[in-house]
Amino acid sequence: MSKLLSYDNGISDTPLLGITIPEQLRRTSQQYPDAEALVVPYQNYRATYKEFWAQIEEVAKGLLAYGVKKGDRVGIWSPNRYEWVLVQFATARVGAILVNVNPAYKAAELKYALRHSEISLLIMSKGFRKTNYVDILGEVRAACIRLKHIVIMEHDWKSLLQAGQKISSEQLAEREQSLQFDDPINIQYTSGTTGFPKGATLSHHNILNNGYFIGERLKYTSSDRVCIPVPLYHCFGMVLANLACITHGSCMILSGEAFVPETVLKTVQDEKCTSLYGVPLMFIAALNDPSFNNYDYSSLRTGIMAGATCPESTMRAVREKMNMKEVGICYGMTETSPVSTQTFVDDNEYRRCATVGKVHPHLEIKIIDPETGCIVPRGQRGEFCTRGYSVMLKYWNNPEATTSVIDEGRWMHTGDLAEMDDDGYVRIVGRIKDLIIRGGENISPFEIEEYLHQHDDIKDVQVIGVPSDRYGEEVMAWIMPQEGANITEEKLVNYCKGQIATFKIPKYWKFVSEFPTTVTGKVRKVEMREIAAKELGLEPRK
Ligand code: AMP
């Protein structure tokens, strides 16, 4: 075994950007005024950097007119739309903290996010797919006393812009001058390792630099056109895509409200995209779509696959069948802005397909024995930790949770198991955290357990992830019913509908009188997973 330790840092001649997000965007807009910045074909929307900057100014003034102060929380609850992107940069321009609300959220989750981060202005669309957001908000509004203003994109957008007309450019400039790059600018709710969702709080410096170095490693220029089917509410959309683009004068192209394989393929062709993003599941769906052979992918050069383990065969297929010769893998988590490691466009096939690449510039990474905290030798597996500019400021309003993941040396402990080879390339080999990743969506078992616990007929409940060919993992609930209770799978599914996001509703249910436990009474989820996989005839997760 190697004597080298599993530690690496990103030496770089390229300095960090020591400016705020709006300052960066101003510079890019001046440098590439006529390059396209944002294109959303399904909304018939196109804007050059010059136009994009001017529209952001209008929205930013609207926010000031609505009384948004520096540090106020502004929520955004919507699928991918051009307004989302304008709000991302307008909030940064007035120093408000943008709170990303997952478009799949239902009443219980929305109430939690609105109350926890004390959102005072919520910008939302009227709905998504079959979900009516206005009705859901109506259910929880009374419980959210800090919520003062609501802007529904389809109805109130013009009013927001009109309100902004009474704000002068000097007033906006004054606000901009008061901003610092270490100010918090974004809260993203993550499922974390345990407990309720936690609000990872990120600064301009965190996400602007991460986006910049992602784009650098993909060799982005103002000629690149990035197809974005991944959600904007997650770092994958708003950082890996939007911030990588605006730091390079590249174009952001939203393929639709949400991921639809054929629309993505058509957008790549029609918009001559050079780069395409997705979680592995999206690429698998696109490659297997019946329309796949109808479209031309010759404009593609690169792209990113990330969010969950990327199968080598899928990486090879996108390279060969979609012309993505320089496709890469990123690894990271929301709490680290998110990317810590990334492959290089000229890496050999093995490294580009089977590893998550090397440490990002200016960051430090190490792999430790989770029991002792000591750095393990190269080649030995342990917990992946990251330190540097990318580590979040904190979990919003939750100092205990923050200190449980960021230690005194400012290392973020990821809960992921990894190995580093002698050249510094990292492979993710598993997880020590109790987290389910279903098709790229992180799900906290605890959150579902807490919700089901409120059901009168349930004595106890445990939630686990079971293997799935399609999604990587599916959710399964083991229910211990109250004595004499008459509960069924159907009743429980109905109990969850409309309250928790559809992707969190367990696919499998098992009714038991006890759980497998250790001698100390701790529930053995590992054994539950094995039993479930066997009973369902599924391969246990590696
Ligand atoms: P999120 O905070 O939603 O971005 O999820 C972060 C988690 O997704 C990480 O802690 C990993 O467990 C997982 N993840 C992200 N990227 C990768 C990757 N390339 N390979 C394997 N797992 C990944």
| Major β-sheet annotation | 9 strands, mixed
Structural class: alpha/beta
> How helical, in percent, are the residues?
25-40%
Strand order of the largest sheet: 3-2-13-12-14-15-16-17-18
Shape: globular
Overall strand count = 28
Low-confidence stretches: none
What's the gist of this structure?
With 542 residues, this protein is α/β, with parallel strands linked by helices. It is 32% helix and 25% strand.
Your description of this structure?
This protein is an alpha/beta fold and 542 residues long. 32% of the residues lie in helices and 25% in strands. The protein contains 17 helices and 28 strands. The strands form six sheets. Strands 3-2-13-12-14-15-16-17-18 form a nine-stranded mixed sheet, sandwiched between helices. It has a seven-stranded mixed sheet with strand order 9-6-4-5-10-11-21, sandwiched between helices. It has a five-stranded antiparallel sheet with strand order 1-19-20-22-23, with no helix packed on it. The longest helix has 17 residues. Bound molecules: adenosine monophosphate (AMP).
Provide keyphrases for this structure.
nine-stranded mixed beta sheet; alpha/beta; 28 strands; 542 residues; 17 helices; binds adenosine monophosphate; seven-stranded mixed beta sheet
Please render the helix and strand layout as text.
Elements: E1 7-9, H1 21-31, E2 36-40, E3 45-48, H2 49-65, E4 73-77, H3 82-94, E5 97-101, H4 107-116, E6 121-124, E7 127-128, E8 131-132, H5 133-140, E9 149-152, H6 153-164, H7 169-177, E10 184-190, E11 198-203, H8 204-217, E12 225-228, H9 235-246, E13 251-254, H10 261-270, E14 275-278, H11 280-287, E15 302-305, H12 312-321, E16 326-332, E17 339-342, H13 349-354, E18 358-359, E19 364-368, E20 382-387, E21 394-395, H14 399-405, E22 412-420, E23 426-431, E24 436-438, E25 441-443, H15 445-453, E26 458-468, E27 472-481, H16 489-496, E28 508-511, H17 525-536
The structure holds adenosine monophosphate.
